[in-house]
Amino acid sequence: MRREPERQEDRAISLLEKRGMMRLSEFLEEGITSATISRMVQKGALNQLSRGLYQLPDALLDGNHSLAVAAKLIPNGVICYDSALAFHELTDRIPPYVWMAIGPRDWRPKITRPRIQIMRFGPKEFDKGVEHHIIEGVSVSIYTPAKTIVDLFKSGKYPKAFYNAPAGLAHATQTMKDALRLRKATPSEIAKYAVEAGIWEKIVQPRLEALTVNA
Fold first, then answer.
1. pTM of the prediction?
2. How many C-beta atoms surround the C-beta of residue 198 within 10 A?
3. Which of 8, 81, 139, 194 could in theory staple to 99 by disulfide, Cβ–Cβ 3.0 to 4.6 A?
């Protein structure tokens, strides 16, 4: 007859096979103790991805693994800026950290691993243009290409407010050109988000019209 800790280990493995990765709080909700998880890590039965986040050592890793980790650590966050561009295959640059947007009143966590750059978005921008993608069994919130383009334009217009953002109107314009060429965003989608963000007439409209006048 197997001991209870062994049954807990089996349940932990079974849950991870279904969910991809889990936080310690999720294990506790399932009746699996922190002592069991610690013992499994010591035995090599679990990998600790970050503080309180675990995955099976033989799990198949997606190319967007870091986005899944970030989503588990910050469930209310949304992947933004260059991390969203990389996911949508609109940039060849590999971001040095995961760009993550949080709401105006959301708690700002302190995370050392993986490297996550957290940006606080206003109430009018945060909930707009969000898609949900499954990466390694985790539901990850990511801004659409059109929404990301507008976010880049806004960061380029207000570089001091977005002190660490990949600011630059040139970067945003090139991204918009690529998205239109690859049919990953339409002029109407970009215009909608730009109007909502209050940067349509002076910032986005002239650049969008210059790209589409002869299209």
1. 0.86
2. 13
3. 81
Three state DSSP letters for 24-49: HHHHHHCCCCHHHHHHHHHHCCCEEE
- Asked if residue 109 lies in contact with residue 73, where contact means CB atoms within 8 angstroms, the answer is yes
Q: How far apart are CA 100 and CA 80, in angstroms?
A: 6
pLDDT of residue 4: 59
Is the pLDDT confidence value at 103 over 90?
yes
CA distances from 176 to 63, 81, 82, 125, 212 (A): 24, 13, 13, 18, 11
> In sequence order, what E strands does 33-137 have?
47-50, 53-55, 78-79, 98-102, 116-120, 130-135
Domain boundaries, the chain: 4-55, 65-212
Residues 6+ apart with CB under 8 A from 2: none
DSSP category for residue 17? H
The tokens for 99 are 């760009």
